[in-house]
From TrEMBL:
InterPro entries: Kinase-like_dom_sf, Leu-rich_rpt, LRR_dom_sf, LRR_N_plant-typ, PRK1-6/SRF4-like, Prot_kinase_dom. It is found in: Membrane. PANTHER family: LEUCINE-RICH REPEAT RECEPTOR-LIKE PROTEIN KINASE PXC1, POLLEN RECEPTOR-LIKE KINASE 1. The gene is LOC104723979. Residues 1-31 form the signal peptide. Residues 647-657 have a biased composition (Polar residues). It comes from Camelina sativa. This is Pollen receptor-like kinase 1. Residues 352-634 form the Protein kinase domain. The chain crosses the membrane at residues 257-279.
Length: 657
């Protein structure tokens, strides 16, 4: 997981639930109409399994009904799967659910044409796989669905062309159409998708450029497809190029070899022409360009970053060694590498790489870039880093580049320009802790269980301890710890990102956006201390245990999560306090409570009384992920209840060291 990616993703992911929560709160009073709407939906369904929806009953609130997903009393999702349902889907009734964002009717027996889901314009995901829907999907079936991210229509009996409206969905991430009878050519997509599966249809013709990087497997089972990434070449190389009206292959009876040669030469010329045009355009156009043209969108297209401000750089030759000059005469391609153990690439490789925006954060956007070698990198773009001059910036980056710790996401390289800096990091597969905590369930992924959460807390604490030790000159060596800046590896080992940036970020921006500046000591005394990172750790621990997103507590002041926990915590196990998604916690309550106390001690507003990072790490390390050791719930509970102070620090937990 890469820090840039993580942070961007997390920011993105944070904003979405925030907006949703706001929406949910604003509609939380509509429970009754939700109930009516769902009962109307039920009326239109034919239930195959007797009693399947029997508990959908006006006597009980809809949020207690199976398959109804709620947040704060509003219905945001219906997940009615594996019930042999058929009948019709009542879109009018569904549109009465004003907070509805996700809809799953997977594995049922619905038939007939594709319902008019576009009337549910706020939908984010639509899962209809494994049903018997049939017929052509109207070309405009997805028009106006600006939020739609996931469309799963696999294993139905859809026919006809893939509707082009689906390719224009601005937020689309996943599209599964496999196992249908779609015909015709695959349309060009406006941007790259995380997941696409078109296998087992009857699609024909060239695969569009925007999909030429996908795994060939996703096209399997379509006899008529050709072009990259498949081995079968299309008959005419023209088909792989953007259409050029001047040069359509003319049907002709001349010698096929001659035609092939002419065609190839023309193809090369056109290709070069297109490249020259693109390069020119990118030089002229400094603005962000949205990639809607054909072809995979490169980082350059996405960002408008130019690989050289050659003219200016020509005058500054002294301070960059050997920018690898290329055929186009571009000179400043120098990325400064901080790691010896990495494959080198230059800025041009990066700008050429096909890129996908991971998110836009407070300081700029992050992109996932796929280098030609197949390597995934995350590029984070900072526009608010004019605090430091070039030398100072480089010095600081070198210092950060020397850090080596299991729980830090390494910064691989950076690029310096006065008005803009890029940091290049590895890509983190599981994304950010924020995503895993707050969005996984709505994506249908399992949530983090208690042992995993404890492991993450431990890793984060170790990383912080290391930072404090190895960046002794910084008051808050991390300075921006929050769940979106913690990435998870495949094995759920946490990796901290965006550490050590306080000296570089413009002060005004930092004060608005960085976590350290939301600490009680800064809010009250405009002071950052050695314990400010500990406060951020405390908030993170509370977020991990409660599943509550700190910024959702009034005015984005994270202190309020701690107050909320303090209010609801009376020294004993309180199920409502903890994240229900944590799963089975019996026999672990003792440890969970201990960790909660540690979190609260880290959030102690009085800096003098707050734990320091060494104490916090020691206490956290004492907790074991495995069951069966020392304490159990009751002994801890009994011994700790009386000693707890209102600040959440129990004398017992302090004695534990
Ligand atoms: C695509 O879907 C098919 C089922 O139709 C599945 O077997 C295959 O694994 C999927 N491929 C990818 C790459 O997801």
């Amino acid at each position: 997981m890469h820090p840039m990616q993580v942070r961007c993703l997390s920011l993105y992911i944070i904003m979405v639930p925030l907006v949703c929560l706001l929406l949910l709160f604003s509609t939380a009073t509509h429970g009754l109409s939700d109930s009516e709407a769902i009962l109307n939906i039920k009326k239109s369904l034919v239930v195959g399994q007797a009693k399947a929806l029997a508990s959908w009953d006006a006597k009980t609130p809809p949020c207690t009904w199976p398959g109804v997903l709620c947040n704060s009393g509003s219905v945001w999702g219906l997940q009615i799967e594996n019930l042999e349902l058929s009948g019709s889907i009542d879109i009018e009734a569904l549109s009465g659910l004003t907070s509805l964002r996700t809809l799953s009717f997977r594995n049922n027996k619905f038939g007939g044409p594709f319902p008019e889901f576009k009337k549910l314009a706020a939908l984010k995901s639509l899962y209809l796989s494994n049903n018997q829907f049939e017929g052509d999907i109207p070309d405009n079936a997805f028009e106006g669905m600006a939020w739609l991210k996931k469309v799963h229509l696999a294993q139905n009996k859809f026919t006809g062309q893939i509707p082009t409206s689906v390719t224009k969905l601005p937020k689309l991430l996943e599209l599964r159409l496999d196992g249908n009878q779609f015909t015709g050519q695959i349309p060009e997509f406006g941007h790259e998708l995380h997941l696409i599966n078109l296998s087992n249809n009857a699609l024909t013709g060239p695969i569009p450029e925007s999909l030429s990087m996908m795994d060939p497997k996703v096209f399997e089972g379509n006899k008529g497809l050709c072009g990259k990434p498949l081995e079968t070449e299309c008959d005419s190389p023209f088909k792989e190029l953007p259409p050029q009206p001047a040069i359509r292959p003319k049907s002709s009876s001349r010698d096929p070899l001659v035609i092939k040669i002419i065609v190839t030469v023309l193809a090369i010329l056109i290709f070069l022409g297109v490249i020259i045009v693109l390069i020119n355009r990118n030089y002229r156009n400094k603005q962000l360009t949205l990639a809607v043209e054909t072809g995979p969108s490169s980082l350059q297209k996405k960002t408008g970053i130019r690989d050289a401000d050659q003219r200016r750089r020509g005058r500054h030759k002294s301070d960059h060694r050997n920018g690898s000059a290329t055929a186009t005469g571009v000179e400043n391609t120098k990325l400064s590498f901080l790691r010896e153990d990495r494959e080198k690439f230059d800025l041009q490789d990066l700008l050429k790489a096909s890129a996908e925006i991971l998110g836009s954060g407070c300081f700029g956007a992050s992109y996932k870039a796929v280098l030609s070698s197949g390597q995934l990198m995350v590029v984070k773009r900072f526009k608010q880093m004019n605090n430091a001059g070039r030398d100072e910036f480089q010095e600081h980056m070198k210092r950060l580049g020397r850090l080596r710790h299991h729980n830090l996401l390494p910064i691989v390289a950076y690029y310096y320009r006065k008005e803009e800096k890029l940091l290049v990091c590895d890509f983190a597969e599981r994304g950010s802790l924020a995503v895993n905590l707050h969005s996984n369930q709505s994506l249908g992924n399992p949530s983090l269980d208690w042992p995993t959460r404890l492991k993450i807390v431990k890793g984060v604490a170790r990383g912080l301890l290391y930072l404090q030790h190895d960046l002794p000159s910084l008051m808050a060596p991390h300075g921006h710890l929050k769940s979106s800046n913690v990435l998870l590896t495949k094995a759920f080992e946490p990796l901290l990102t965006d550490y050590g940036l306080i000296p570089l970020i413009n002060q005004e921006k930092a004060q608005v956006h960085m976590a350290a500046y939301r600490s009680p000591e800064y809010l009250q005394h405009q002071r950052i201390t050695k314990k400010t990172d500990v406060w951020q750790l405390g908030i993170l621990i509370l977020e991990i245990l409660t599943g509550k997103f700190p910024a959702n507590f009034s005015q984005g002041s994270e202190e309020d999560l701690a107050s909320w926990v303090n209010l609801g915590f009376h020294g004993e196990w309180a199920p409502n306090l903890f994240d229900k998604e944590m799963g089975k916690t019996s026999h672990c309550e003792g440890k969970i409570l201990k960790l909660l106390r540690i979190g609260l001690s880290c959030c102690e507003p009085d800096v003098e009384k707050r734990l320091d990072i060494i104490e916090a790490v020691e206490k956290i390390e004492e907790l074991r992920e495995q069951e069966g050791d020392d304490d159990d719930f009751y002994s801890t509970y009994v011994s700790e209840t009386d000693g707890r102070s209102s600040k959440g620090v129990s004398s017992e937990s302090i004695n534990l060291t």
